[in-house]
Amino acid sequence: MKATATVNAKATVKATATVKATATVKAKTTVKATAKGKAAVPARAPVSAKPGKPAAKPRPGIVAAASAPKTQHKDDGPELFAVTAQDPKRAFASRSGLIDRQGAVVRIAKFDGAGEAGGGMYYVAGGNDRIFLDGRGHNRFRRTGVAAQLRFGADGLAASWRWDAARARSRAELVDRDGTARPIDADDLMTPSEGLAVALRDRGASTAPSEIQPWGAHDGPFGAVDLEGRWVIEPRFVRLAPFVDGLAAAAVRKGDRVVWGAIDRRGELVIAPRFERLISAGPGRFAFSEDGRYGLCDERGATIAEAIFDAPLVFSDGLAPARTAPGAAGFLDRDGAWAIAPTFAWTRGFARGAAPFSVAHGGRERWGLLDRAGKVLLAPTHHDLRPIGSLFAWAGVYRRTQRQAWGYIDERGAAIWEGTR
Fold first, then answer.
1. Where are the domains of the chain?
2. Which of 235, 221, 230 is nearest to 196 (CA)?
3. Apex CA 261: angle with CA 258 and CA 265, to 5°?
4. Which of 56-65, 120-129, 180-189, 204-213 has the lowest mean pLDDT?
5. How far apart are CA 131 and CA 387, in angstroms?
6. Which uninterrupted H or E stretch holds 153?
């Protein structure tokens, strides 16, 4: 997923903060959410540096951007971050590479693409090939074509497929971190989670496999297989999401409607199917939707916060970004109470104890960082700021070229990587 900014092309990086760096927000309120209107409870760039050494400052005119991984990693292993540098000798051409959390270059920016592949794995791409690397930047294996679109889970496996010419259809397989593939008796497969992989069976002949989405276009039947490929949950669901903390959101058809509930690892219902949509919000919590608004329930389906929020609630570091209306964004705790009052334009998830927030400034939004107590760690001066693994990607605009750029900062606001101005 490429990180993209929404700033105006003529904007500049300079901005006056509207919140002082020492400001604090009241840590917690105890009012619960209800449906009737009550409150609900920049210096280096890896363009020419050698691997393992700090990135050198790029030549003027090189625009750099950060590529956003989709998941956050624990702090118990190396972590890499993708960067892209525009080639000054070729118009509209760019090259990608990888840096570590200190900003040192692990892969020089000379590839067609680079990014995070999940489960502590990364890739660099050239043409139709992808080379997969571990967190230390060591090559593990290479794949070609559509079959190279791998995403690993915490179990160390990725879902993939092979074309079965004899049967004129695709067949699923699981791939480990060394590139070794194991065939699975399924027509399509999702990345395993907690020892189980959502699988599709008897989809019929296909000229090309398609990625399963938990609420995508497929009507199933979906079930789950274990890491040896044995069917643990027979395919009978219209939709099925990955398991989180032993539970998975699952959908069935009732008449002309698709309704969502949740199942355990044996495939037994623990939340009766009745929701428009159900999304894991973290251990023991689900976000549910009613009439396009979102609320919060527990692992048995009991309502914790009514559906008054405009986006699904997802917890990180015990808090979930939540917004009830424009200019009314804050953070909820697991009990549905406001842990950080809804006084911001937008809020995003936590990483290493810090989370982005935005405030209105001169007709635009400016982003900063705050901690779990609501104390401002970094004043809101950035055009955009979002958690990328254990770092934060910022957005800005180069004054000289008026070109949009991305860089990385840590949870204290210290510059890890940035392009030229």
1. 64-417
2. 230
3. 125
4. 56-65
5. 25
6. none
Q: Is the pLDDT of residue 29 over 60?
A: no
One-letter amino acid at 388 equals I
Cα separation, 409 vs 61, whole angstroms: 22
**Residue 367 and residue 384: Cα distance in Å, rounded?**
6
Phi, then psi, of 145 in degrees rounded to 5: 75, -155
Tell me the three state secondary structure of residue 147. Answer: helix
Quick one: pLDDT at residue 313?
96
* Tokens coding 350: 């936590």
Residue with tokens 């989709």: 70
Contacts of 302 (CB under 8 A, 6+ apart): none
pLDDT at 339 over 80: yes
Give me the architecture of the 64-417 domain, per CATH.
8 Propeller (2.140)
335 or 362, which is more confident: 335
How many helices (H) and strands (E) the chain has is answered by: 0, 34
Residue 21 has pLDDT above 80, yes or no: no
